[in-house]
Amino acid sequence: MTDGIASDRSETVFKDFKSGFSREQALVEANRCFFCSDAPCIKACPTQIDIPQFIRKITTGNVKGSARTIFESNILGMSCARVCPVEVLCVSTCVYNGLDQPPIQIGKLQRYSTDFAIAEGWRFFAAGPDSGKSVGLIGAGPASLACAHELRRHGHRVTIYEKRTSIGGLNTTGVAPYKMKADCSVEEVAWILGIGGIEVKTGVTIGVDIAVKDLEQLHNAVFFGAGLGADTKLRVPGEHLAGVHGAVEWIESMKLARVATAGVQHCVVVGGGNTAIDAVREARGLGIPRVTMLYRGSEVKMSGYAHEWRSALPEGGCAEWQAIVTRFEGSQSVERLHCQRLDAQKQPISGSDFVLDAQLVLLAIGQSKLGTLLAGLEGIEIEGGRIVTDAHGSTGRKGWFAGGDCRNGGKEVVNAAAEGKSAALAIHAYFSGGKHA
Ligand SMILES: Cc1cc2nc3c(=O)[nH]c(=O)nc-3n(C[C@H](O)[C@H](O)[C@H](O)COP(=O)(O)OP(=O)(O)OC[C@H]3O[C@@H](n4cnc5c(N)ncnc54)[C@H](O)[C@@H]3O)c2cc1C
Ligand code: SF4
């Protein structure tokens, strides 16, 4: 076991859903790119990576330069190459789509260059001369890591406080293992920390071990990158039974340790978002014979990505649409779910009750917001649990900044990376007494 990650953890049975490119494959694909001026793919990337530029460098054999172009915009370029929903971001805007030709596989080309760079141990950035200023960051997820790295480039001292023993946030504990496994995320974190001078204090919960307000005495500025909180409860009878879990909590157990699936004949995943789809595919991948997603909306209105759901179907995922759980039943652990159908207005249809047998239930109906942690601080505005900031991550309290899921309500790794970097530049401007560009 290293960094809270067991070597015999359940996620190791998964293979990469999209394998990496060989050199020849990368060259063929890179040479298809038109290197568009005013490229739409750049605008679709939240971190604004110069995509045609990094692809052009692959065509000339300059993999190091290609990786530098990516990391200059997004220091989490290696994980983003694996986990980004490129189908709805850069790839969806590629001009090839309008020509009835397959779009450029931007994610796989990005993976080619960044994997190479990290495997070779290439370093592109050095810490700046010591500014004498110190920043405390809450959480060691993508937002804080991107922020910390950029702050070090400007010479600021950085301490990250992380409540878990593992680092990397949901990149380590949440992302589906057929996209990226925990050890790959931890390897990326180690490479990012390689810039030097980023102190990471694991096992420290801000608000418990250190009072939130005390951070102001310890540091000249604070970045809040704590992500989202615990899985939302359904609040129906029987939810306390063994075998009923929050999906994010169960996924974390599966990624870091071993989860028991022996004897589970049927797993029901409640919800219709991307976490629900991941949980369906993961439960099937772990060998559970029947896995059903139970969602109160219809297939066309599900909040999860359609391309992800399409991938779940051939793997054996199935669904009960427009249905809700009214109670769980079992003696010690869950044995069955009592359910009801809803009409198009999401109203229960009388006489539509049905029962599903299940030995495992995963609740993927959302996560709590952690904004409440800052609730007592004057000047900090919280809206629906999210921290309110300006476009660059400054809150209404002097010296306090925020980014990632706790600010945007829960988006993607690439958004957290973009917001973390932007906040670092705002913090640098704050120290310099200037305004963010
Ligand atoms: C199941 C799941 C699958 C996902 N899959 C994808 C995907 O395939 N692609 C994609 O792009 N995005 C995916 N996402 C979303 C993505 O993981 C997040 O948007 C991203 O990780 C947000 O980064 P963050 O740094 O804001 O928060 P997090 O990654 O959540 O990191 C926050 C960190 O703060 C720590 N923390 C919290 N409170 C405290 C405290 N009080 N004191 C100290 N530390 C604290 C937490 O332990 C955590 O390590 C997924 C999310 C989930 C839940
Ligand atoms: S839009 Fe497509 S073809 Fe144009 S630069 Fe981007 S990846 Fe290349």
Relevant terms:
single chain; FAD/NAD(P)-binding domain; binds iron/sulfur cluster; five-stranded parallel beta sheet; alpha/beta; Fumarate Reductase Iron-sulfur Protein, Chain B, domain 2; 3 domains; binds flavin-adenine dinucleotide; 437 residues
What would you note in describing this structure?
This protein is globular. It is of the alpha/beta class and 437 residues long. α14 links the parallel β8 and β9. The protein has 16 helices and 17 strands. The protein folds into three domains: 103 residues, Alpha-helical ferredoxin (Fumarate Reductase Iron-sulfur Protein, Chain B, domain 2), CATH 1.10.1060; 156 residues, FAD/NAD(P)-binding domain; 137 residues, FAD/NAD(P)-binding domain (3-Layer(bba) Sandwich), CATH 3.50.50. A five-stranded parallel sheet has the order 3-2-1-4-17. A five-stranded parallel sheet has the order 6-13-7-8-9. Strands 10-11-12 form a three-stranded antiparallel sheet, with no helix packed on it. The site of flavin-adenine dinucleotide has 40 residues, from α8, β2, α9, α12 and α13.
